[in-house]
Amino acid sequence: MGVKQLSVFEEVNEKEVRRIIAKELKQYRALKVAIQNKTERYQEGVEDLFPSFSRKEKEKELKVRQIDRALDNALDEIELQIIKQKYFSSTRVKDINLYLDMGLTKDRYYSHKRQAILLIATALDII
Description:
mainly alpha, single chain
């Protein structure tokens, strides 16, 4: 007779969570630039420099602030370094290059990466 583990958290589909977080972190870079560009336009007195099909400025700003907060407060140094190098680089970075550059074993790297993604998802109330 097997013993079932009790958990306060329900099971989550980690693959789906990783996919969502990766998408949000990639989009975050563009949103952050959009907010900086908007601020610059307002400072220069130019509002309609480009045509806009979306008027969701508040949502964009809120999303950036909440992701900033999650990155600043939910992750340790190693987790933050992994996320920044993996998702905020302008070039595609392979995991093997990251863990070799960081001096981590493959297992430790993936453990930190997994933990970082779950912490971000928790901080953003995705899980």
